[in-house]
Amino acid sequence: MDKVVMYASVSVDGFIADENDQPGPLFDWLTSGDVPLDDSGVLKVSQASYDHTRAYWGQIGVTIAGRHVFDITDGWDGKPPSGIDHVVVVTHRPAPEGWDPEAPFHFVDGIEAAVAKAQELAGDRIVEVAAGEVGGQVLAAGLVDEVRMDVVPVVFGSGKRFFGSVAAQHLLAEPDVVIQGNRVLHLRYQVRR
Q1: CA distance 144 to 142
Q2: Where are the domains of the chain?
Q3: pLDDT tens-place string over residues 70-89
Q4: Is 130 in a helix, a strand, or coil?
Q5: Start and end of every Bacterial bifunctional deaminase-reductase C-terminal domain (predicted)?
Q6: How far apart are the first and last CA of the chain?
Q7: Where are the alpha helices (DSSP H) in the chain?
């Protein structure tokens, strides 16, 4: 597989969080159904969202995120989210003081190094890049193969942009996946090269 996919839940006006890094209702679709998405018992989605999301999650080997996301999630308490094997953190700083060196997190400087490390760790599985500043930088560098987004029916007006501060035009192919769930529209686009 060896694909690099940029992904996040996003408002219809293109934001992944508000100005205070809060997702607001962007994750409401994860509790808007009756089909358990994982073993937590908290995440319950529509059958359409379950079929789409579980299949995708099962393909991800590594997630790339920026240090900002790592910090605001408290490093997911040292456990990668959604059953992912590894997280590669793009940062100019070392791991936090007291960080467990056995945790499957890898701290690298720069997006090219992050993608290379993630591809090495992922093997034939997908490398997922969190949308936002880091995702936008990876897209701008021509390293993203596919863009996936869970579009939620809310308008933020301002906040953290899905594509970060990307200033250049990037063409995507027609959506090859369009799935309607409860309070969400799942979309997938291939990146034109």
Answers
A1: 6
A2: 4-190
A3: 999 999 999 988 778 999 99
A4: strand
A5: 89-170
A6: 18
A7: 47-57, 67-72, 111-122, 133-140
The single-letter code of the amino acid at 13 is: D
Which residues, at least 6 apart from 49, have a Cβ–Cβ distance to it below 8 Å?
Answer: 29, 33, 35, 37, 179, 181, 182, 184, 186
Look at the block and give the residue holding tokens 């607001």: 24
The model's pLDDT over 143-192, given as tens digits with 9 standing for 90+, comes to 999 999 999 999 999 999 999 999 899 999 999 999 999 999 999 999 99
Residues contacting residue 153 through CB under 8 Å, at least 6 positions apart: 12, 183
Quick one: pLDDT at residue 1?
57
Encoded amino acid at 54, one letter: R
Two tokens at 53?
Answer: 């999301």
Answer for the pair 61, 127: CB distance below 8 angstroms, yes or no: yes
Tens digit of each residue's pLDDT (9 = 90 or more) over 18-65: 999 999 999 999 999 999 999 888 999 999 999 999 999 999 999 999
Which DSSP string corresponds to 33-70? SSEE-STTSS-EE-HHHHHHHHHHHTTEEEEEEEHHHH
